[in-house]
Amino acid sequence: MEKGKGQFSLKFHGWVGLGIIAISEILLFSGNSFVNIYFTPLVWSGYILFVDALVFRFKGASLIVSRPKEFLLMLPLSFLFWEVFEFFNLYIQNWHYVGLPEDLIVRWLGFGWAFATILPAILETAEGLETWDRIARQKIHPFKIGRGHLYLSLAFGAFCLILPLIASPGLAKYMAATVWVGFIFLLDPLNYWMGSKSLLADLERGNPRTLYSLLISGIICGLLWEFWNYWAGAKWHYTIPILGEVKIFEMPVLGYFGFPPFAVECHVMYYFVRNVLSKKCLKCAKVPKMPKVADKNISIIF
């Protein structure tokens, strides 16, 4: 955090990101048709570049600069994860899209680009927040995680995700909250069992920093999503059944409570897939042992 004290230094791609945001907003209000359609993915691409440069400034390493392969992996995963939530929206019917281009190629280009920015935006913001002194110093009394806690979490997570699928349409629209927490309770115990990055393992060590940074990241990204969505031409509208007319931008006020757990859920889903892929790759990479050569003077053992 002391690096660059007294002056604001930022890597070039950070300035590019700020430029993308500024130019996109100028062109949007100038009536540019391309920006009117693609405003959301444009500004979020700029945001990701800017935040990545900030993370690099404070940590000396960042997702795009130091882990570009991981960044590239996040993009299709982000799209796929959001498609999972689109599937649940078929039942809860809490949002829909307006102002979309009629050309399906143009429309799906926008969907793909926009959805690919969700995961990097959340995780980049959280990574940056972890460098904040108020979060970096946080400690709690270690949780004791037992097998019973893990089984209970798994069962509750499965219940949350199954419930809106089996409820009547009239009830399902009230069950968005179960979708925003279900994958946390279902997948984080599995991450814990796989011995890799897990929020439960962090809490067991008395480390709440990742959780806190994710919750705040959800608030920041949620506010920006709704702010930029409000001005976009191609956008989403909400049909939340409780206090749906009391809004900040396009989002009913109660909907903002969904952003912090959504950020945690994205983190848990991402590391679950990473854990599965890494274990699968390790298994595939194992070289079978070869038999010893019969010659007394030569022995090759793998």
Keywords:
302 residues, mainly alpha, two-stranded antiparallel ribbon, 13 helices, 4% strand, globular, disordered C terminus
What does this structure look like?
With 302 residues, the protein is mainly α. It has one domain. It is 67% helix and 4% strand. The chain is built from 13 helices and four strands. The chain has helices at residues 12-29, 33-59, 63-66, 68-92, 104-116, 118-129, 133-136, 147-166, 169-172, 176-193, 199-204, 209-231, 259-285, and strands at residues 95-98, 235-238, 247-248, 251-252. Helix 1 packs antiparallel against helix 2. The longest helix is centred in the N-terminal third of the chain and has 27 residues, at 33-59. It is globular and about 60 Å long.
The parts where pLDDT drops under 50 for at least 5 residues are 1-5, 285-302
User: Which structural class should the secondary elements be placed in?
Assistant: mainly alpha
Largest sheet, spatial ordering of strands: 1-2
Q: Tell me, what's the shape?
A: globular
Order of helices and strands: HHHHEHHHHHHHHEEEH
Mean of pLDDT: 88
Tell me how many strands there are: 4
What is the rounded Rg?
Answer: 22 Å
Number of helices: 13
Write the layout of secondary structure elements.
Blueprint: H1 12-29, H2 33-59, H3 63-66, H4 68-92, E1 95-98, H5 104-116, H6 118-129, H7 133-136, H8 147-166, H9 169-172, H10 176-193, H11 199-204, H12 209-231, E2 235-238, E3 247-248, E4 251-252, H13 259-285
Antiparallel strand pairs: 1-2, 3-4
